Amino acid sequence: MQNLETKNNLQDGLQLPLMEEFYTIQGEGNYTGTAAYFIRLGGCDVGCHWCDVKESWDEKLHPLTSVETIVSNAKQNGNLAVITGGEPLMWNLDKLTSALKSEGIQTNMETSGAYELSGIWDWICLSPKKTKLPTQSVYDAAHELKVVIYNHNDFKFAEEQAANVNDKAVLFLQPEWSKSEEMLPFIIEYVKNNPKWRISLQTHKFLNIP
């Protein structure tokens, strides 16, 4: 059971439930092909049935780790950090992002947008989910909208989300990995007919890297 100090540190963002951290190549979206240090935080209640990191959902399974330790590790691995999850906005990210930026590290985030925005961001990739829609603060701040296409109904959802996001956001459609072979031909045709969209692929899976 967490003591009061631990709860306060978590609430203030001085410690965060860290599932894993690793240096790799960004495989999706606008920064595809870019070297990046991934910081994956535990905790998510959005509940996507096709989530490929369901082990991240229960934050209690992942050790509370100080911002100082996370930033120290990030400093040794390039100059771009991607904060992901889980759902990272479950936590106060002000301290983490301020500390990363003070070390000259670019701060990118991948989020469903289900919680209010915290942190200082160079790039926000919003990947909204039907089960828990984004907050207005994330719609307004997103640099990139990435909608996962699992079935044909998701094209309508994608357009609904594009109407909500700010008009500067880059728009991506990405096939859910297990449905790539089935849905990619439809995505290609959709983008040809609606060129405001771009295609994102999980290239890291093709490359067999994390």
TrEMBL record:
Family of this protein: Belongs to the radical SAM superfamily. 7-carboxy-7-deazaguanine synthase family.
Molecular function, one GO term: magnesium ion binding
Protein name, UniProt field: 7-carboxy-7-deazaguanine synthase
Pathway listed: Purine metabolism; 7-cyano-7-deazaguanine biosynthesis
Primary role: Catalyzes the complex heterocyclic radical-mediated conversion of 6-carboxy-5,6,7,8-tetrahydropterin (CPH4) to 7-carboxy-7-deazaguanine (CDG), a step common to the biosynthetic pathways of all 7-deazapurine-containing compounds.
Top-rank taxon: Bacteria
InterPro entries with a match to the protein in the record: 7-CO-7-deazaguanine_synth-like, Aldolase_TIM, rSAM, rSAM_sf
Record keywords, A-Z: 4Fe-4S, Iron, Iron-sulfur, Lyase, Magnesium, Metal-binding, Queuosine biosynthesis, S-adenosyl-L-methionine
Protein source organism: Paenimyroides tangerinum
UniProt catalytic activity: 6-carboxy-5,6,7,8-tetrahydropterin + H(+) = 7-carboxy-7-carbaguanine + NH4(+)
PROSITE patterns linked to this entry: RADICAL_SAM
